[in-house]
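Morning - flavin mononucleotide inputs below, output right after.
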Amino acid sequence: MAGLSEQFHSGTIYSRKKPFAGSKPKDRPEPFKEYPGSKKVKLETPALPPGSLWLSLKNRRSRRDFKKEPISKDQLALLLWASQGVTEKISGFQLRTAPSAGALYPIETYLVSNRVEGLEPGVYHWNLIEQSLEMIKPGDVSLELELAALNQDMCRTAAVVFAWSAIFARSTFKYSDRGLRYIYMDAGHICENLYLACEDLKLGCCGVGAFFDDEVDALLGLDSKEEAAVYLAAVGKY
Ligand SMILES: Cc1cc2nc3c(=O)[nH]c(=O)nc-3n(C[C@H](O)[C@H](O)[C@H](O)COP(=O)(O)O)c2cc1C
């Protein structure tokens, strides 16, 4: 990380050593904007076309209460595909289910597997090219993740937690500081794909942006400089 990336990332971390002291506006803005007196064109809520996409969009919620039952390895494979599956190879680019600014794909996927059938609990990295899960740390780290995620117990009770990191230079080498914006947009696209796929598989999903950066990075074995965790999502049966 360099320049603004470094300033922004380190200026917005949560850490036990340095409680977040960023500036906040004094008043909460109105949540909706209106142009009173403007000429208005009313649109009715549309009837949804058939198809699972529309149902997933309609029914999607952030779900945080998970059952103890595991999810299957096939379900996990589908979720990995939905979030980062390669769907087309064109002139050196491996295009995916989620868009990425400049097809640079700065986001890496890690998993904290707690209860996935046939998969030992532990921390894994998703090797996209080989389509394999690379074990980084064996054993149950669910409690450590809960503590690192500001005591959010869904990170312990989830069957699996997706953890997305950014390799910042993948974007900033081309777009300079502007690339920083794209990195977080990319992570958002990926997580929404995961939400929608979970909805279709009747699995619960909740995005998690509140975590102690240094603790999650340490759990994933990241240096917090070139690569750092940017977003998590807890997934499980509900
Ligand atoms: C970037 C982002 C970070 C979030 N972080 C958390 C989190 O740390 N903990 C949590 O319980 N929910 C988190 N959420 C879920 C939101 O609270 C949730 O989307 C919101 O309440 C709207 O509810 P819905 O997703 O069910 O429509 C996050 C959502 C987003 C998009």
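Note: The longest helix spans residues 178-200.

O.
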